[in-house]
Amino acid sequence: MTVTTARLQEARRAFAQLRCLAGATPDPDLKHRLQEMSAQLLAETGSPGAVSRTHARPQNLTSREIDVLAVIGTGATNSETAEQLGVSTETVKGYLRTAMHKLQAANRYNAVQSARRHQLIP
Asked: Staple partner for 89: which of 3, 74, 82, 110, CB 3.0–4.6 Å?
């Protein structure tokens, strides 16, 4: 199935929302179900030029770093990302800075692109 640009954008927003909900819920069963749903969505939107899944977590990106990249990948600002994740803007900046370092990315755009190539986010 070919994924259109509009559908891919929808999938990216849904993925980010699922990640946000999973991070916010204290219920371990619900958290697990939301994580499974986001993983399924990611698998369905995988790109043909992506890196092998065996390299899915370069430099051990944390779940929260991936959450930040997922939300930023929808075009959200640091403030909007913080609001969606329920953390401070400074916390978002910290996660983003660490993720950029681990992905050897010069800026947020490169970090998101690298995360997509490694199939961490759609």
From this structure: 82
User: Domain range holding 103?
Assistant: 5-117
Task: Give dist(CA 31, CA 45) in Å, integer.
Answer: 21
Instruction: Give the tens place of pLDDT for each residue, 39-65.
Output: 999 998 875 555 444 444 466 999 999
Average pLDDT, the chain: 89
In a domain, 111, yes or no: yes
Chain-centre distance of CA 105, in angstroms?
A: 15
Cα distances (Å, whole numbers) of residue 51 to 55, 86, 93, 118: 7, 31, 26, 5
Is residue 94 one of the residues assigned to a domain? yes
Structure tokens at 1: 């199935």
CATH of the domain at 32: 1.10.10.10
pLDDT (mean) for 102-113: 96
